């Protein structure tokens, strides 16, 4: 981010639809209590696949918040996005009347890894089962990984800069950084984030080729990064949308600046080359720190990528040591995603939401299901740790080789 | 060939486009545009597809370009009459 810092990009609203909570309050309560909701996959058609444990969103009925005409033309991942966007906008006190007065001043940025697999599967089954005349026209837009940006902007009438970031799992952080850049260039607000719905038969079969996927059948043992028992990651669905807004615009509206997106760095080191991700992630962290003019010692908490693959965990611990020096062994590190799973692009956005909430509450949430850490990290386990955190570093890596780091600073209030 | 009624159209608007509108509404205000009712171009295309599958006959190419339920019913029913 080389734009001038005179228009800081603030986070003013958080909307969450996660396996452990379908509101920001319930998400935070479960996250800070270290509740694990990883469980056996129950989604229809997935029972006999060799992937047994996932983080499902169970307490969510899209019809509660989304109009039927938007539901029929969208996949589950877009249902989550529309709902989370609504929650975030309400949280930021940006109502329909505020945004329709100046529709060009607000846009949407999302990232998505897999798109609308469930919707696509249904229509493809009609194609091969009954014939092409039975495929609904909304198949043309619903499967597409850009669908959520499009539908959120259409539904809310936003006409400002809209985009979709396709950069692997780390794209969740890159989308937030992209939103911050748009704000720095003059847009008042961007609704940004990611939601995913990879827990449907077709989508799950697509994931079975990943060596990094956990095949463990016991939910308490399936996702335990940074331990000797690490055996891969557990996938999840859901996600979060945030309102990224010009701090000046927020102040003008009398709305609290909850955090500032202060720095971002992104690199690429190749698919599943986890040893190389050490260098890539360290460089992303250095870029984010430089971007924010932040010394390593200022980082108060790290939300780790925590893939749960031994080589990847080692690379992440070493990347932190490379980029933060001696501070890497002292700074509290956490990975609340071990309690809900990794929602691909949505995972680091949920981590960003948790980081903002952690700074607000002065409480670093724990890493569920993880006990004996085998790396030189101060991983927060067991229960939440009180800490006056003012600067948070969120890390993400994708299975295809993207590495990203986002630096957040606690908001200065109003 | 049976005619397409406001009842059938209302059912299809719900099924293919997620728009709830009563047959009475369609009867009383047939000139209210599809766009106003919340049916976009892909939604109308879906309705046309459902009708073709249900009746086993192609609909006129202009059916998906109709702006109002009145226009749509007139065109489709005229075509069905001619085919019968």
TrEMBL record, chain A:
Coiled-coil annotated residue ranges, if any: none
Keyword Aminoacyl-tRNA synthetase: no
SUPFAM superfamilies linked: Thiolase-like
Keywords: Acyltransferase, Transferase
Domain Ketosynthase family 3 (KS3): 6-410
Transmembrane regions listed in the UniProt entry: none
Family of this protein: Belongs to the thiolase-like superfamily. Beta-ketoacyl-ACP synthases family.
PANTHER family, sorted: POLYKETIDE BETA-KETOACYL SYNTHASE 2-RELATED, POLYKETIDE SYNTHASE-RELATED
Protein name as annotated: Ketosynthase chain-length factor
Organism field: Streptomyces pyxinicus
UniProtKB/TrEMBL annotation, chain B:
Lineage of the species this protein comes from: Bacteria, Bacillati, Actinomycetota, Actinomycetes, Kitasatosporales
The entry's keywords: Phosphopantetheine, Phosphoprotein
Transcription regulation as UniProt keyword: no
Annotated signal sequence range: none
InterPro entries to which the protein is assigned, alphabetical: ACP-like_sf, PP-bd_ACP, Ppantetheine_attach_site
Location of the Carrier domain: 3-84
Official protein name in the record: Acyl carrier protein
NAD as UniProt keyword: no
């Amino acid at each position: 981010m080389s734009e001038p810092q005179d228009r800081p990009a603030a986070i003013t609203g958080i909307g969450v639809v996660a396996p452990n909570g379908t509101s920001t309050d319930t998400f935070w309560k479960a996250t800070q209590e270290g509740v694990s909701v990883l469980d056996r996959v129950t989604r229809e058609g997935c029972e006999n696949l060799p992937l047994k444990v996932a983080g499902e969103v169970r307490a969510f009925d899209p019809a509660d918040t989304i109009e039927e005409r938007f539901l029929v033309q969208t996949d589950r991942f877009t249902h989550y996005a529309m709902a989370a966007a609504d929650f975030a906008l309400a949280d930021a006190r940006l109502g329909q009347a505020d945004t329709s007065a100046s529709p060009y001043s607000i846009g949407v940025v999302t990232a998505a890894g897999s798109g609308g697999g469930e919707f696509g599967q249904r229509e493809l089954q009609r194609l091969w089962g009954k014939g092409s005349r039975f495929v609904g026209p909304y198949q043309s837009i619903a499967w597409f990984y850009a669908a959520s940006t499009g539908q959120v902007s259409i539904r809310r009438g936003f006409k400002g800069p809209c985009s979709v970031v396709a950069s692997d799992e780390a794209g969740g952080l890159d989308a937030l950084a992209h939103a911050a850049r748009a704000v720095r260039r003059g847009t008042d607000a961007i609704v940004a984030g990611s939601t995913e719905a990879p827990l449907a038969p077709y989508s799950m079969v697509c994931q079975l080729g990943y060596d990094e996927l956990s095949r463990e059948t016991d939910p308490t043992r399936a996702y335990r990064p940074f331990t000797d028992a690490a055996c891969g990651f557990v996938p999840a669905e859901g996600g979060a949308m945030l309102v990224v807004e010009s701090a000046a615009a927020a102040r003008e509206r009398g709305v609290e600046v909850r955090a500032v997106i202060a720095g971002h760095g992104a690199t690429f080191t190749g698919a599943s080359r986890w040893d190389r991700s050490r260098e890539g992630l360290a460089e992303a962290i250095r870029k984010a720190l430089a971007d924010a003019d932040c010394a390593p010692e200022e980082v108060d908490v790290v939300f780790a990528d925590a893939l749960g693959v031994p080589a990847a965990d080692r690379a992440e611990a070493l990347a932190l040591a490379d980029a933060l020096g001696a501070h890497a062994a002292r700074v509290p590190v956490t990975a609340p995603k071990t309690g809900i799973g990794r929602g691909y692009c949505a995972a680091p956005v949920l981590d960003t939401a948790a980081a903002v909430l952690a700074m607000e509450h002065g409480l670093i949430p724990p890493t569920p299901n993880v006990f004996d850490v085998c790396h030189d990290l101060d991983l927060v386990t067991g229960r939440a740790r009180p800490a006056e955190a003012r600067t948070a570093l969120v890390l993400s890596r994708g299975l295809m080789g993207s590495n990203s780091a986002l630096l957040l600073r606690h908001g200065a209030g109003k | 060939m049976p005619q397409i009624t406001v009842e059938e159209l209302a059912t299809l608007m719900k099924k293919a486009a997620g728009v709830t509108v009563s047959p009475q509404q369609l009867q009383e205000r047939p000139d209210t545009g599809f766009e106003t009712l919340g049916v976009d171009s892909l939604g109308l295309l879906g309705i046309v597809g459902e009708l073709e599958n249900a009746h086993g006959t192609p609909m006129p190419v202009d059916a998906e370009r109709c702006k109002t339920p009145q226009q749509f019913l007139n065109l489709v029913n005229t075509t069905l009459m001619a085919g019968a």
